[in-house]
């Protein structure tokens, strides 16, 4: 059996030979002992990571029968999803109780998200184009800069097979509410490189997303008479990739993801506001890696994300939101000694975008330059990580963040870890400039987080308990006193997470529990109030078993009630749902899968006034030669 250090070196080399943008990708991750690269910007195993991490690979995605990225992430440790009306509708994510724009999202290493709203359109990232997802809970600004107060979620798009030759795959599915899905892909690989292409389509007639409130308080779903029609969604997408190894030292990679969507939603005709949007998510990136020896690796990477939305009232164009994020990075990784490494890097980012609207048009841009360093060392049973970063923002000046993490393995699979880190978030363009909302005087948000964890790996079963606290200064909220975005003094978030997995007989069992206390500590009437849209308790349980050619699974998700407003006057009730799935591999490479979502037809909301679908059924056929 390989030693841990030997295994780590071999997996690091395997990853480096096939990484796309930022060298943050994976070979066939299922064969690489659960390797993660997001937690430290270098390859390490999930077991060795000092941060709280979760990996969802392609096998997990297919087994889950999820139809969207938000559906796949729902109920996982530290993750709260708020959805406005079903498949394709706006979905916001709160990681460890931080704000919905406090999580950094990467696609193949490229920073994505809207610089105007500060949000990432999770609902528009097609699940069939995803090979792997890494979730890192806890601040990571000392490695990635702004936005990573709550953590980092990285999506890796589809990868081709390692073996030379031609590989294909295809899938079709249909289900409730007019669900229609189709995808196909092909990979061509030679001795030194390969290319691949995947195409996909998803559409649904949707549900009536809004239930209304009985009084015309404001537009959106809080309206007197929402449209009674169903609110559909359509997404056409494609991903393209290529890689080439020029000798043993040089590796070139490139990838692109493009998704075009058309989303319909409710609008009270009296307001005259848009009722459908044509959206675009596009991510393009590439990297060059130079590795003359196992002791040194240098990577140069660059990428661009475009997030755009054209909004219509019927067929009449109303406005356009568009942002562009250009980024580049140079990172060197140096092996100092056995079990010790140093990473040094430079990052460059430029955000630009605005709104084309007769009443609220604006344009803005800003750049950011940064230098970072990270030390990782292993000393017998102890691990140490130190990181430091300095950001220079065109608008807000310099910001220094740092992190320290320590781990101690004290035998028989037991491990104790502790960490402390700082992070920050620059205001979005909307928070600064959007008419009747923006405030140019806003200050960046800053946070301090501490975490203590205890875990045990007994082979067939593992568990980890994490306790954390985050304090956020200058938290940005909408202030009714000035009718604009404003900084409040402080918020405090405390939480505990328990994750466990086990092999019990022929069953794979995975459980996740979380408690959360997120409060506003600013002076005034809101002091002590709970931050909105964060349930105090959540749980998820997944059970899966294979019976020869058949597979069966259940997922139970539960969340406690939450407040939907800062004043804690609008309550959204808790809920519990059960999903079921069954699959049949009836021929070599062919699998038939059926799923039942919300099997007991529970009525619930995650955002006030927005309906969630009831019971839904889907049937899919997949062809994927081994």
TrEMBL record:
GO terms for molecular function: ABC-type vitamin B12 transporter activity; porin activity. It is a multi-pass membrane protein. The keyword Electron transport does not apply. GO terms for biological process: monoatomic ion transport. Residues 1-25 form the signal peptide. It comes from the Bacteria. Residues 227-598 form the TonB-dependent receptor-like beta-barrel domain. PANTHER family: COLICIN I RECEPTOR-RELATED (PTHR30069:SF53), TONB-DEPENDENT OUTER MEMBRANE RECEPTOR (PTHR30069). This is TonB-dependent vitamin B12 receptor.
